[in-house]
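Problem 3 from the worked examples.
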Amino acid sequence: MVLQIAGGGGPATPAGRALELDGVAVFTLDPAGLVTSWSVTAARLFGHAAEEVVGQDIGAVLADADQRGLVDQALAQIAHGRVWSATLDVPATGGSPVAMHCEPLAGPGTGALVITRRTAPPAGNDLLSEAAARIGTTLDLTKTAREVAEVAVPAFAEAAAIFVSERLLAADELGSHQAGRAAVVRRLAACLAGQPQDVTDSLLRPGEVLVFAGDSPSFRAMTAGRPVPFASLDRESAERIARRPGGREFTATYTSFLAVPLVARGTVLGCATFARAYGSPGFGPADIAVAGELAARAAVCIDNARLYHRERRTAGALQRGLLPAEPRVPDGMAVARRYLPVGASVVGGDWHDIVPLPGGRAALIVGDAMGHGPEAAAVMVQLRTAAHMLADLELPPAELLRRLDAMAAAMPAAPFATCIAAVVDPSASSCVVATAGHLPPVLALADGVSQVLDLPPGLPLGLGAGSYESTQIRLPPGATFALYTDGLVESRSRSLDDGLAALCGTLSAALAEPGVTLDSSCETVTQKLCQSGEDDITLLLARIRE
């Protein structure tokens, strides 16, 4: 018999709701476990007429004397208003398993409504076919582990839990497990037959990190690399579960366990633990073989999800390092910025930076390394870091570009990049600008007129030109200073001149909106000028506060 206990039984179900369906048998019990009604389908399923069983003890009708204690446990749960589910090998049906569901008739202490049906475990090939169809539908590690557990329960076992080595998940450390030691694992998912997920998670918490002792069956399975059947939980696991509500009843339910290592690509990832309860046959050689096949298929899917999870973590860490940090803007200035990488990339060749300087000044830098994706990003981060350090030394823009050019020329394959650097001084209402092959800045005046500034263009970084020229620009009250990359103004369908004209017009219109902020203007301009996504886009707007 398979005992499942779900707390807080729902509202009463009157006997009149019993459905006489083909293959389903219904009967009722009084609080003492005596049969009070016996349907025609029950007589057909169990081979006993109603007059033979009404008033008889249900344990004597369906089971043998050895299982009377389990029947008493089930009746006790019903008496407390809980639902009880079981799979019982019934002698009267020739030993074929019968699935049984019991719930209180009208509340605690009123007896039980019992719904039964004949069932049979699927053949091994059927289980493996279902596993192939259901496991690995996503690359989410937790969902994949849950799929494994749900395939196994209740088709193969009444309980299943999936564990993966913590060192693989946290540090991606590979290695063999040594006999006599211990293994730190994380429970990814668990499933219990007949139990809602919240009840299962309260007993077998997903994400819980625990230790398999060196003498535990699960650790021995991981060490030996083969399934290990056992009759009861190890003491540490049993005590841990017993401390939780319903834990002692849970640990007393199961009588046969099987720990199966999860091995993929020659690495032991962890193990899967299966359990069967009273009345279900113990795990035999055929079951162990099926479990091994199931675990082998599951391990590959879990490892795929683990590797994907690792790559996402790595990519996330790199992206956080490559993307610019939140800038520290001097009190006398307002700055807004937008960056849109091309395609599915998170970072590319564009960069921008804001470096606060003494006296309320700030260095504004925008650059564009040739190319897209990780190669351009690798060049970009080196140039951005070097430019930030040079700006922090309070170098004039022309000298900053000269040193940055020398560094780029010395890099492997001498990358090609453009850059513009400006130092804004709010106290003098001016800025000093130098460019290295970059598009000139745009100045949007408070009266609504925007113009592209005419500056010495300079040569791109990486050519070793060594000569750049600075220009001082006056920033009138309310004027907005715009730095950008070519992705904002140029594409295959729009010439550079048309793009620059569009930038001037769109910027003037966005800034003229009543009550508009510099940040919302930056967003408006970026979205309106973003066309086909052929190149990274960067826009940096700066204004001296009045």
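Problem 4, a separate protein:
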Amino acid sequence: MMKHSIKGHRTVTAVAIDPRAKPRDQKTRLRVIEDPSKIKEARSEFRQAFKKKNPREIPTNIYGRHEVIGWWLEKFGICACFMVEPLARGNEGRYWWSPFGTTPPERRCMYYPSREISFPFKGIKRGINGAFAVDSRGQVFFVFRLGRIRKEAFFKELCESFRLEIIHDGDKETEVLRVGALDSANFVARVSEFVLKSR
């Protein structure tokens, strides 16, 4: 099978592994976005998708340690929070952290998110659950690395709602759920569905 690469990306192959999934093109390719500037750009587009929904802004405090503005989207039943600056964690290095909740936060009170979504500065790294991947048409997707989530009771329901794939990243294989395309009209709805079903 031929592989192609472009600057800032690594070519990967995505194949369906969920037997319940509908038949689809097995030659579908996703390339993990590894370039920091491109990840930052995709993460900004991810954030803007929620801002465009005109959320109610509520100052809150995640775990009592991170003061942020929570964006409550009543129509979707979620609260989205986006850190202005990246965080750092052990060997994983710097990463973008976005905690989500399913209840509106109380003004300037401690808030406990139900689902955390993070993006590394570079590619997919072990311990960081989110990533951006691009297909052959240049469309960018948000994918979620499974890790421990596959052991949760809600995993089967997630597989019924989101495409389950294996992304080959060099000599490693990473299982992901393709949540949605950043430029799709229903992107916020898809992320909200993911958050609600994986809490």
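Solution to problem 4. The chain has three helices and 13 strands. The helical segments are 36-51, 155-161, 187-197.
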